[in-house]
């Protein structure tokens, strides 16, 4: 069982790499280097903040776009085509396939983020000339961004299990946006009564809540991140991903392949 | 079918378990970060930067910030906080993003000026906000109403209040009470009826629950002030007639000055003090009253 | 009695189509069929008859609306079954970015081939289907025929007991088709069961022990090839050289065809002697005399034309 899941995961990763997905890193490297160099005009404090803010936001945005694209390319398109005929007629269970795909997808993103993280730290080093205590939160922020990616991958997987490639991309992106506004949604629920309020409250708990993961600004200011938050966010990301993945498994079990 | 049903059952259990777990974790995170964090709530200090970042979706951003402002105010108000320092910036950002949104001006007019915990304690900010609003919405009578309201309640500048109501009354689309309020401000500014009319119109013309509740509390307070004033006048008359102070309300009743035991709007009877003053039973729950308070007591602050 | 290779009990499939998934499309009527181990079984029918649907149901690629099936005594939904079966879909799609070797290695992993055996097994497969020259070229560069061979390789890679092939000859040139025919025969000699669907009757006739005819989602008939192609009234075909048709022959009233100097006569066995006598008398040169067997085609066409019954036929 595990070896099959690992096979699927590895194969997914290999496909992403051969699909030249990792070339996005070049664009990212150019962007962040340009920023680091241009920002050299301003005073030291703001310089650092700009690099952190820009760098982390870029990692986050690039990553989400990639997560959605390869999520669609590697999962939705595959389910839509007939490549699965010869795969699923083997002893591979359908749920193993889903889980393997998730790990492959997530793995690709983690590797991608790793490279980007190196880029960010190099840029940081360039503008501040040495690492400081205040750089640790940047690590935490990057970790949280990776957790966000896990959730986005799980969502892409879930939508791929029943809708077309384009619609999966749209739904995933929509949930990403809503997830970032989740706190506002719950705030809205708090001040609204009646049916609208009930719906808003339910929605607020079901959509992925990315607000707690977004500590980019804090990292830019060098504020330390409480260990409890790291723990809670990790648990939340794992639970939410598990939820989306099990949803994908359930839907995919019954699906008629083309 | 057995195998796939097996898998389905496990998957459903995992899904439900994970759902429950994630909701619980969210709640834990909520408890952990109780205060709406200043950074998170505003995220960007400068409205201009925010405007640019909105990529044209300024309307939506304004709506989001308005929601945050309401949530922030509601949260602080509900917890009887003394700290409302984010209210002005939030309202500023909201109105800069969408100057045509009226409710923020209303909220600002009602709650930016009063001192904490009833408001943010920044009357100048309130004034600036309204003037910004009128500048961008010169035909909105509601804003002139709020301006007059502000001048009356906070600045006690009855002339300016009257002028504001009058200006609003001259608009092509306005409310019939505007000229009435203008006239009252000019002639009868100090009277109970004027204040009552103002608070009543404030109650009527908004749908924001916080503003309505505030208006009701003021109306109740007005009633109490009025009652106390009237009762103290009656006590005076009694003294002039009987030559001594009444001991209890019953005395006044027997002498024919009042019928029944007078009570405040909450149903609690007023009491007479030894030196002929009238006091309320329970000053703690009557906000904004200026009369009927026991000596040495400040206007009540709400119990947490 | 050994377990049947495949036993199908009233397997049925109805698709719900349309925007609201309200309309029903009947793809397969309740099908009842048994295939014995060691058989080469042909599944015949025109396009859209339900052949591919049946295979998809057996492979677990789509859930049946009703009915069950067993392969080697195990329910088709049991994942253990799939270690024992191989499947070649019609016009197979593979991961373009992989080479043949990588694909087969991946599939070997999924099929549970032990790590130590994978490399040799894959190499042997590549050789057996004749693509070892391009083993390390990405599949996106393969021709249709080469892809078909890869498809065959992945179907038999893990040494399955039952092999299911959907239109295995499609897209192949005559040489390729011959190779596939040889492969199927080899598989049979190895004791495997082969179930293949096709609409090319000559292949079925040459390879199969038994055939089934399916049309419009319904099983129309099942029979052994030997029986179906035997004719009670056997005929012979006589070919000889002649400038013109001997009048005595025309008088016999047998079927004749003339092309150039060659004459083709088809006569019943009773008339055979008379024809030969005429040839001898006219001193005409006999080229060949062969028994004519009625072809599978007649059985096929007859079954296709027969009225649809309400329920599926069984065999």
Key terms:
heterotrimer; B: 304 residues; mainly alpha; 3 domains; two-stranded antiparallel sheet; 62% helix; flat; C: 315 residues; alpha/beta; Rossmann fold; Alpha-Beta Plaits; 6-stranded mixed β-sheet; 4-stranded antiparallel β-sheet; 10 helices; 14 strands; 33% helix; globular; disordered C terminus
Description:
The complex is a heterotrimer of chains A (258), B (304) and C (315). Chain A is built from eleven helices and no strands. Chain A has helices at residues 2-18, 24-38, 44-80, 84-88, 94-128, 136-160, 165-180, 182-191, 194-206, 216-221, 227-253. The longest helix of chain A is centred in the first third of the chain and has 37 residues, at 44-80. The mean pLDDT of chain A is 85. With 304 residues, chain B is mostly helical. Chain B is built from 13 helices and two strands; from the N terminus they run αααααααααααααββ. Chain B has helices at 2-32, 38-42, 47-53, 58-78, 87-97, 103-111, 123-136, 141-155, 158-169, 177-187, 192-204, 209-242, 249-254; strands at 271-272, 278-279. A two-stranded antiparallel sheet of chain B has the order 1-2. The mean pLDDT of chain B is 83. Chain C is of the alpha/beta class and 315 residues long. Chain C folds into two domains: 6-229 and 297-305, P-loop containing nucleotide triphosphate hydrolases (Rossmann fold, 3-Layer(aba) Sandwich), CATH 3.40.50; 235-292, 2-Layer Sandwich (Alpha-Beta Plaits). A six-stranded mixed beta sheet of chain C has the order 6-7-8-3-9-10, sandwiched between helices. In chain C, strands 2-1-4-5 form a four-stranded antiparallel beta sheet, with helices on one face. In chain C, strands 12-13-11-14 form a four-stranded antiparallel beta sheet, with helices on one face. In chain C, α2 crosses α3. The longest helix of chain C has 16 residues, at 174-189. The interface between A and B is medium-sized, with 35 and 27 residues.
């Amino acid at each position: 069982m595990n070896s099959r899941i690992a096979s699927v995961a590895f194969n997914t990763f290999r496909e992403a790499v051969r699909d030249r997905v990792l070339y996005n890193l070049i664009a990212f490297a150019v962007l962040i280097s340009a920023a680091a160099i241009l920002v050299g005009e301003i005073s030291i404090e703001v310089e650092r903040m700009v690099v952190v803010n820009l760098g982390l936001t870029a990692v986050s945005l690039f990553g989400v776009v990639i997560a959605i694209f390869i999520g669609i390319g590697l999962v939705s398109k595959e389910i839509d085509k007939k490549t699965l005929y010869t795969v699923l007629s083997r002893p591979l269970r359908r749920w193993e396939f889903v889980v393997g795909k998730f790990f492959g997808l997530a793995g690709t993103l983690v590797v991608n983020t790793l490279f980007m993280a190196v880029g960010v730290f190099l840029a940081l080093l360039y503008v501040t000339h040495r690492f400081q205590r205040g750089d640790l939160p940047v690590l935490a922020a990057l970790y949280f961004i990776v957790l966000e990616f896990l959730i986005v991958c799980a969502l892409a997987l879930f939508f791929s299990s029943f809708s077309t490639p384009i619609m999966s991309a749209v739904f995933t992106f929509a949930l990403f946006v809503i997830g970032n506004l989740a706190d506002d949604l719950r705030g809205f629920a708090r001040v609204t009564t009646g049916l609208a309020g009930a719906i808003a409250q339910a929605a607020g708990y079901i959509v992925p809540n990315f607000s707690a993961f977004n500590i980019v600004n804090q990292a830019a200011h060098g504020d330390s991140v409480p260990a409890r938050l790291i723990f809670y966010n990790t648990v939340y990301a794992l639970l939410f991903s598990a939820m989306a993945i099990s949803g994908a498994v359930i839907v995919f079990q019954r699906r008629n392949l083309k | 079918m057995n195998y796939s049903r097996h898998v389905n059952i496990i998957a459903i259990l995992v899904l439900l378990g994970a759902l429950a777990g994630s909701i619980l974790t969210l709640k834990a995170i909520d408890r952990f970060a109780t205060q709406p964090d200043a950074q998170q709530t505003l995220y960007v200090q400068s409205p201009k930067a925010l405007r640019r970042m909105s990529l044209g979706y300024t309307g939506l951003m304004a709506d989001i910030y308005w929601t945050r402002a309401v949530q922030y105010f509601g949260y602080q108000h509900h917890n009887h906080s003394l700290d409302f320092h984010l209210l002005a910036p939030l309202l500023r950002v909201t109105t800069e993003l969408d100057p045509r949104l009226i409710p923020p001006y209303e909220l600002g007019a009602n709650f930016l000026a009063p001192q904490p915990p009833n408001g943010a304690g920044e009357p100048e900010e309130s004034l600036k906000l309204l003037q910004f609003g009128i500048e961008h919405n010169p035909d909105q009578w509601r804003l002139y109403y709020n301006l007059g309201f502000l001048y009356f309640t906070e600045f006690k500048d009855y002339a300016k209040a009257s002028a504001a109501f009058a200006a609003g009354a001259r608009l092509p689309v306005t409310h019939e009470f505007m000229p009435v309020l203008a006239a009252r401000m000019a002639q009868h500014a100090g009277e109970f009826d004027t204040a009552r009319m103002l608070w009543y119109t404030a109650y009527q013309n908004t749908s924001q629950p916080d503003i309505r509740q505030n208006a009701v509390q003021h109306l109740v307070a007005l009633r109490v002030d009025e009652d106390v004033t009237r009762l103290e006048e009656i006590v005076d008359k009694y003294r002039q007639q009987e030559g001594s102070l009444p001991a209890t309300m019953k005395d006044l009743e027997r002498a024919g000055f009042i019928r029944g035991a007078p009570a405040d709007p909450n149903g609690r009877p007023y009491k007479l003090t030894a030196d002929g003053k009238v006091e309320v039973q329970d000053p703690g729950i009557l906000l904004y009253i200026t009369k009927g308070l026991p000596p040495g007591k400040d206007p009540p602050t709400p119990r947490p | 009695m050994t377990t049947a290779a495949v036993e199908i009990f009233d397997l049925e499939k109805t698709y719900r189509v349309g925007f609201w998934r309200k309309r029903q499309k009947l793809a397969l009527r309740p099908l009842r069929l048994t295939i014995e181990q060691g058989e080469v079984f042909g599944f015949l029918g025109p396009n859209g008859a339900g052949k591919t649907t049946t295979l998809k149901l057996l492979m677990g690629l789509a859930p049946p609306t009703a009915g069950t099936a067993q392969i080697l005594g195990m329910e088709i939904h049991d994942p253990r079954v799939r270690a024992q079966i191989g499947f070649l879909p019609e016009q197979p799609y593979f991961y373009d970015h992989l080479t043949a070797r990588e694909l087969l290695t991946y599939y070997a992993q999924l099929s549970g081939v032990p790590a130590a055996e994978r490399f040799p097994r894959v190499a042997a497969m590549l050789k057996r289907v004749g693509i070892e020259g391009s083993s390390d070229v990405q599949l996106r560069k393969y021709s249709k025929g080469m892809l078909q061979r890869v498809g065959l390789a992945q179907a038999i890679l893990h040494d399955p007991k039952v092999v299911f092939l959907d239109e295995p000859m499609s897209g192949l040139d005559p040489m390729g088709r011959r190779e596939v025919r040889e492969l199927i025969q080899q598989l049979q000699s190895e004791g495997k069961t082969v179930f293949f669907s096709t609409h090319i009757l000559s292949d079925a006739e040459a390879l199969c022990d038994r055939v089934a005819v399916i049309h419009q989602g319904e099983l129309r008939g099942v029979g052994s090839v030997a029986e179906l192609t035997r004719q009670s009234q056997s005929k012979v075909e006589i070919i000889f050289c002649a400038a013109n048709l001997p009048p005595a022959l025309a008088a016999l009233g047998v079927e004749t065809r003339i092309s150039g100097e060659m004459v083709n006569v088809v006569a019943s066995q009773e008339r055979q002697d008379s024809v030969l006598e005429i040839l001898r008398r006219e001193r005409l040169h006999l080229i060949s005399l062969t028994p004519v067997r009625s072809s599978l085609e007649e059985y096929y066409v007859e079954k296709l034309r027969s009225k649809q019954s309400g329920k599926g036929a069984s065999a």
